[in-house]
Amino acid sequence: MFHRIILGFAALVLLVVPAYAQDREVPYWATLRYDETNMRVGPSKEYKIDWVYRRKGLPVKVVRVLEGWRLIQEPDGTRGWVAQRQLNPERGALVVGDESVPMREDADGGSTIKWRLEPGVVGVLGDCGRGWCEFSVGNRTGYVRQEQLWGVGEP
Predict the structure, then answer these.
(1) How far apart are CA 128 and CA 146, in angstroms?
(2) For all residues of the chain together, what is the average pLDDT?
(3) Which pLDDT belongs to residue 15?
(4) Same-domain check for residues 100 and 127
(5) Residue 24: what pLDDT?
(6) Of 98, 93, 109, nearest to 145 (Cα)?
(7) Is residue 78 part of a domain?
(8) Are residues 82 and 103 in the same domain?
(9) Banded pLDDT at 23 (limits 50, 70, 90)
(10) Which DSSP symbol is given to 23?
(11) Cα–Cα distance between 37 and 140 in angstroms, integer?
(12) Which UniProt keywords apply (predicted)?
C-alpha cells in the first residue's frame, strides 16, 4: 500500500512540474523542443494541424496559455496553438533582415567579423547588453546586434 502511495505521488509530481515550469506571465519567449512540432488552429489535438515546424530551437513568442496548450506567434505575426510539452523555456533567436549580418568577436561594431549569418539562421541566445547579444550557432559563438535578432528583449 505504501509503495502505491509513493508511486502515485511521484506520478503526480511528474505531471505537475512540467506544466508549472512554463506557466509564466505572457507574453514570453520559448523555443521549439523537437525537430518536428505541430501547430494547430485551436488548443486541442481535435483541431486541424495548420503547420508542421521542422526546426528544433526556433524561437517563438508565447502570447496565451490555456491548460496544456500555448498560443504562439512567429516573427511575421502568424499565430497558432502548440502543446506545452513541445516548447522549451530555453532562449533562442532567429537572424532577421534582408541581408547577411556579421557575427563579431566582441560586442563592438569595430571588432573582427568572425562569420556572416544569413537571414533565417537559428541559434542559442546568450546574454544581451548595450545593443549586442551573445549568439551561438553550432560550435560558433560571437556577438550580433540585438536588432538583427528575433526572440530578444521584451516579448
Answers:
(1) 7
(2) 89
(3) 44
(4) yes
(5) 81
(6) 109
(7) yes
(8) no
(9) low
(10) -
(11) 26
(12) Signal
- Average pLDDT of the segment spanning 67-78: 96
- If phi > 0 it is left, if psi is from -120 to 50 it is alpha, else beta; for residue 18 that is alpha
CATH number at residue 57: 2.30.30.40
- Domain membership of residue 77 (yes or no) is yes
Which domain-ending residue is among 69, 87, 105? 87
| 80 and 28 housed in the same domain | yes
Backbone angles phi and psi of 95, in degrees to 5: -70, 130
Closest CA to 38 of 55, 15, 62, 17: 55
Separation in Å, CA 94 to CA 14, 27, 75, 113, 115: 32, 18, 9, 19, 15
The 3-state DSSP class for residue 146 equals helix
Contact of 80 with 62, CB cutoff 8 Å: no
Q: Residues near 97 by Cβ (< 8 Å), separated by ≥ 6? A: 119, 148
Q: Which of 67, 123, 118, 128 is nearest to 97 (CA)?
A: 118
pLDDT number for residue 46: 98
Residues 6+ apart with CB under 8 A from 96: 75, 119, 148, 149, 150
Residue 150 is placed in which grid cell? 528575433
